[in-house]
Write a structure and sequence with these properties.
Distance between the termini: 30 Å
Strand order of the largest sheet: 1-2-3-10-5-8
Order of helices and strands: EEEEEEEEEEH
């Protein structure tokens, strides 16, 4: 049966991953979607998450608040509110949160991601 599905950040599963908290908003674990995982990531101000790679997932990030950078090799892109970044599969990357404010980022993965699998090489 086709139906709308929704969740709220206060009611979703939170994964405490290296350098960030990631909120599993919508994906195959909790709704009808088969091709996407939608989440929210919080990077504490003044920190830098370890580098990781998604071997099979495309990822899009959208910055809600805070500031920082996404680093991929010799590339660096500013992460400021309103910025969107596409990360292709296989590109090692890491996120740095500048200042004291938490960097809050919307995440979208396709195909769906297993939360944290890329941090342990089990994606």
């Amino acid at each position: 049966m086709l139906r709308l599905e929704s969740t709220h950040v206060d009611k979703c599963t939170v994964y405490h991953l290296p350098g960030r908290d990631w909120y599993y908003m919508l994906g195959p674990q909790n709704c009808q979607t088969k091709n996407l995982t939608f989440g929210l990531a919080d990077f504490p101000g003044g920190t830098q998450a370890s580098a990781h790679t998604h071997d099979t997932q495309e990822e899009i990030l959208y910055v809600i608040s805070g500031q920082g950078a996404i680093i991929a090799g010799d590339q660096q892109v500013a992460m400021i509110p309103g910025a969107a970044v596409f990360i292709p599969p296989g590109l090692p990357h890491q996120i740095r949160a500048d200042g004291e404010e938490t960097l809050r980022v919307v995440t979208l993965f396709s195909p769906p991601v297993i939360p944290g699998a890329y941090d342990t090489g089990k994606e």
